[in-house]
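Format is sequence with structure; example below:
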Amino acid sequence: MKTPADASSQIISVIVPAWNEARTLPATLAALAENRAAYELIVTDGGSLDGTADLARQQGARVLSGGLRQRAAQMNAGALRARGDVFLFLHADTLLAPTALDSVRAAAARGVAGGAFARRYASPSAWLAATCSLANWRGRLSGWFLGDQAIFARREVFERLGGFRDLDLFEDLDFARRMRRLGPTVLLQPAVV
C-alpha cells in the first residue's frame, strides 16, 4: 500500500483485473505510482501465463489469483478484499494522470456516488478522438461510463449495488447506470489514456 505523509487521508483501492497483461501493466502501474494520494493496489489475475502476476507483485500489488477470466468476477473479488473507502477499477492498459487519485478523493468527499475519467487514445486518429468526444459527452450528460474510463465508486455505493453483475460484456456500463440511480456521478479530468 502506498501512503503519503498524510496517512489520515482517505485510502483508494485501485483494483486491476488482468489476464496476460505483462506488456501493458508496467506502464499502467508506473503512471499510478506517480500519484501522491494514498492507495492500495490489488491486481486480480485471471490465470496469466506471461508473468503478469509476478510483475504486479514486484510493483507492490496484492495479487489475487483465481483463474477467473471474467472482468466482473475479477473486479468483485478485488473489491471484496479491498480496504479502501473508494474503489477505482483500472484496466491494465490504461494510464492515469499524476493527479487522478486526488481528483477521485475530492469527488468522493463532495458526496458523489462515483464516476469515471474522460478518455483519450495515444493515437493521432481523428476517428478515435471523435469516439472519445462522444463518450465524454455521454458521460457528462447521462453518467454512462465504460471500464476503460477508470470507473470509481464509494465503497458504500458499490456494496449497496452488490458490485458488478455477472455479465460477460458491458458489466461496466450496467454498473455505471445503476450507480447513477443512487446519486450524482462525475466525469473527471485530465483524461485517462
Observations:
- The beta strands are 12-18, 39-45, 62-65, 86-89, 114-119, 152-154, 185-192.
